[in-house]
């Protein structure tokens, strides 16, 4: 089933100004280079649209999870993280500034719907496509081998400090049961070290649950394991939602198969 209002759809239809604002909200600060902990790193220029790399990333991610929903879209304690059928497949050629993501998931009775906004919930088969070509999209970006979130200064601290093998920012389309419900929305992906444990929680070694308000924003990720993240959201404000926008979708994939990687890249990376 699809439950939505014309008002919520109107906020998401692909006006360039709205899309650009969406990228600015998700990717607030240009990435800076990672300086340590990995043996093979590509330099990420602070204002570059993409890094220059020799090769292609190609992954397939499974063990899909819906993370939270309207009210709390990050569910750090894992209490509203639900398993669903589905997978994500992504190809990234950073040297050409191109990437393509396809996600297919199916909600079930145990998972319940994706609560996209206060008045829009999605049940059934959900398909998401993110297409990026940085030569044609001023606000789209690709980065490799980069630390994001936490106290890095790259992105908001909605997640702890986390190393990403690659990350993308660009437009996505969303279909529910074959009907296009979101023609265009700003979205963000990360193929990263693992931040969520087997219970779906984000905790440090002592079992302390992550909080964006806490002083310590490191030590929550496991560099020996990987996961894949997808988020998309509107930019209209809503103080009853976290983060405070009218609509969010947050998916996590706990198992990632690397089918192809650039020359010199390592998964997992070697710590220094």
Describe the structure.
The chain is mainly beta. It is built from two helices and 13 strands. The protein has helices at residues 6-12, 16-26, and strands at residues 2-3, 57-67, 81-83, 85-93, 98-106, 114-117, 120-122, 125-133, 141-148, 162-176, 179-194, 222-233, 248-260. The strands form two sheets. An eight-stranded antiparallel β-barrel has the order 2-4-5-8-10-11-12-13. β10 and β11 form a beta hairpin. The model is unreliable at 1-52 (pLDDT under 50).
Distinctive features:
3-stranded antiparallel β-sheet, mainly beta, 272 residues, globular
What distance lies between the first and last C-alpha atoms, to the nearest angstrom? 50 Å
Mean pLDDT: 84
Number of domains: 1
**Global structural class:** mainly beta
Q: SSE string, helix = H, strand = E?
A: EHHEEEEEEEEEEEE
Largest sheet: 8 strands, antiparallel, barrel
- Helix % is under 10%
Give the spatial strand order of the biggest sheet. Answer: 2-4-5-8-10-11-12-13
Indicate the overall shape.
globular
Q: What is the number of E strands? A: 13
Stretches with pLDDT under 50, minimum 5 residues: 1-52
List the helices and strands and how they pair.
Layout: E1 2-3, H1 6-12, H2 16-26, E2 57-67, E3 81-83, E4 85-93, E5 98-106, E6 114-117, E7 120-122, E8 125-133, E9 141-148, E10 162-176, E11 179-194, E12 222-233, E13 248-260
């Amino acid at each position: 089933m699809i439950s939505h209002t014309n008002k919520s759809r109107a906020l998401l239809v692909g006006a360039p100004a709205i899309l650009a604002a969406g990228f600015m909200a998700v990717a607030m600060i240009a990435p800076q280079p990672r300086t340590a902990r990995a043996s093979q790193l590509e330099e990420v220029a602070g204002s570059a649209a993409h890094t220059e790399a020799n090769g292609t990333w190609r992954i397939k991610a499974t063990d899909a999870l819906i993370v939270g929903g309207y009210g709390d879209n990050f569910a750090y304690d894992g209490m509203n993280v639900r398993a669903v059928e589905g997978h994500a497949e992504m190809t990234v050629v950073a040297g050409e500034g191109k990437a393509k993501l396809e996600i297919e998931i199916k909600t079930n009775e145990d998972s319940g719907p994706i609560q996209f906004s206060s008045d829009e919930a999605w049940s059934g088969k959900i398909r998401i496509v993110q297409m990026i070509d940085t030569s044609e999209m001023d606000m789209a970006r690709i980065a490799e081998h980069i630390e994001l979130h936490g106290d890095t200064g790259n992105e908001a601290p909605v997640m702890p400090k986390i190393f990403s093998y690659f990350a993308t920012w660009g437009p996505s389309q969303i279909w529910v049961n074959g009907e296009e419900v979101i023609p265009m929305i700003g979205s963000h992906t990360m193929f990263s070290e693992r931040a969520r444990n087997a219970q779906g929680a984000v905790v440090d070694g002592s079992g302390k649950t992550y909080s964006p308000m806490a002083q310590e924003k490191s030590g929550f990720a496991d560099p020996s394991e990987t996961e894949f993240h997808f988020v998309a959201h509107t930019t209209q404000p809503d103080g009853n939602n976290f983060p405070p926008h009218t609509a969010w979708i947050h998916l996590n994939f706990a198992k990632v198969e690397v089918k192809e990687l650039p020359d010199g890249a390592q998964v997992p990376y070697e710590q220094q």
